[in-house]
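TASK: fixed-backbone design
INPUT:
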């Protein structure tokens, strides 16, 4: 009898533990579904059916009950006793309602900025979308088409490609889409957005409003080792702040993206773990803290909200770009940008040309050098919000390649020595897409 009571007590304890963990996980489950479905429907123009069949069809997320309200432009997702809501904000995508009321989120001073240039289809690339018939010399078209076809095949190790774009010597030489996408589709960046945040910081450095090597003046950090952390440490992911980037469980990154309203503040409150500038540790939180610090350099919210469009997107023809905000009204620089393939390619060209756009030096002259300098502790894998190939991760690509990488297989590859840009978007879990193989095929086509 005593043994049965012990077994029963253990079972009850286990069930209680599972219940508590599930309760903690519930906002992540429903928040992931609500946020990603809302942005897909209201920003990217995808259908609920398509999202639930592919992008949301994994783990417990596949069992959420999602309601899309087209009149209110919001999505509510439920699972068991949990629910989350994401709402649409014109010009700024979708935001999860967390820690701030729906009224607070909707009534912020979002500044709409006119999208330029008008009539982009009549303006030559790269300022506009008119692409001529001139093809740069030195391309074996048969080999290039073979590499693209392989990447679009839909089977491992080339599973899940949505679209591909190749720009050689400044000119688009290939642009292919899966049947359900087109050149007008806005694709989610995931962590490629970190590199856009790098650009915004560079612009504010150019404005004289930010420095990257001065310790941040955050009051709560002044009593411990965090007082030594610089903006540059956050960009290079070696701030020393405690962080867990594991997407497969209840980790810092999943909590930040789905359970809190002020993502930068959540990161700011993390404790010190290592001396600044010593240990490299990938952290989406670091980038959102950068966005919070960036916000402090503006006199009002309106100027902050207008800045990406005025200072970057309009200047390089990224007319499609939508930069989303969290519930506190801060740009989610770690993860949430939407843009077309062509606009991602334009962004790449800005960095390929060392921050110069059509003769206009938009970024500081040494900014790309700084961006591609190996971050201490990264063993050649990372610079400042860009990945590097000095570690040889992609052995068939040159070691001067630097790239933007996003969750589930988003890539913007910039190869200065070959005057080449490769953009790939898709939905591919780890091991399902071979980026090195794609790059090898494309590079082999360049004679």
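OUTPUT:
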């Amino acid at each position: 009898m005593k043994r049965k009571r012990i077994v029963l007590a253990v079972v009850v304890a286990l069930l209680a533990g599972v219940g508590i963990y599930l309760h903690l996980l519930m906002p992540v489950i429903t928040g992931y579904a609500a946020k990603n479905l809302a942005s897909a429907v209201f920003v990217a123009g995808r259908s609920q059916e398509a999202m639930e069949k592919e992008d949301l069809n994994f783990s417990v997320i596949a069992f959420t009950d999602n309601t899309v309200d087209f009149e209110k432009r919001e999505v509510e997702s439920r699972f068991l006793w949990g629910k989350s809501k994401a709402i649409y904000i014109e010009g700024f995508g979708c935001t999860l309602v967390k820690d701030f009321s729906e009224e607070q989120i909707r009534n912020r001073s979002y500044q709409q900025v006119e999208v330029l240039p008008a009539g982009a289809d009549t303006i030559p690339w790269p300022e506009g979308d008119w692409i001529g018939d001139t093809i740069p010399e030195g391309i074996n078209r048969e080999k290039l088409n073979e590499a693209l076809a392989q990447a679009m095949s839909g089977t491992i190790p080339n599973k899940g490609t949505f679209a591909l774009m190749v720009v050689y010597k400044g000119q688009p030489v290939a642009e292919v889409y899966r049947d359900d996408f087109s050149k007008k589709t806005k694709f989610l960046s995931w962590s490629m957005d970190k590199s856009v945040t790098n650009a915004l910081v560079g612009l504010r450095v150019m404005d004289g409003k930010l420095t990257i090597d001065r310790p941040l003046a955050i009051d709560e950090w002044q009593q411990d080792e965090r007082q030594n952390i610089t903006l540059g440490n956050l960009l290079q992911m070696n701030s020393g702040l405690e962080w867990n980037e594991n997407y497969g469980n209840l980790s810092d990154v999943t909590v930040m993206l789905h359970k809190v309203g002020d993502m930068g503040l959540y990161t700011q409150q993390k404790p010190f773990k290592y001396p600044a500038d010593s240990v490299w540790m990938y952290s989406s939180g670091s980038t959102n803290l950068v966005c919070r610090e960036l916000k402090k350099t503006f006199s009002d919210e309106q100027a902050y909200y207008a800045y990406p469009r005025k200072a970057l997107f309009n200047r390089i023809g990224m007319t499609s770009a939508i930069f989303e905000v969290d519930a506190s009204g801060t740009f989610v620089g770690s993860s949430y940008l939407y843009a077309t393939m062509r606009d991602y390619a334009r962004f790449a060209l800005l960095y390929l040309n060392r921050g110069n756009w059509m003769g206009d030096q938009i970024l500081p002259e040494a900014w790309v050098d700084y961006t591609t300098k190996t971050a201490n502790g990264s063993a050649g894998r990372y610079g400042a919000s860009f990945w590097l190939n000095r570690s040889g991760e992609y052995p068939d690509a040159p070691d001067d390649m630097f790239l933007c990488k996003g969750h589930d297989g988003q890539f913007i590859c910039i190869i200065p020595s070959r005057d080449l840009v490769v953009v790939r978007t898709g939905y591919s879990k780890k091991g399902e897409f071979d980026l090195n193989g794609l790059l090898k095929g494309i590079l082999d086509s360049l004679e």
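COMMENT: The mean pLDDT is 94.
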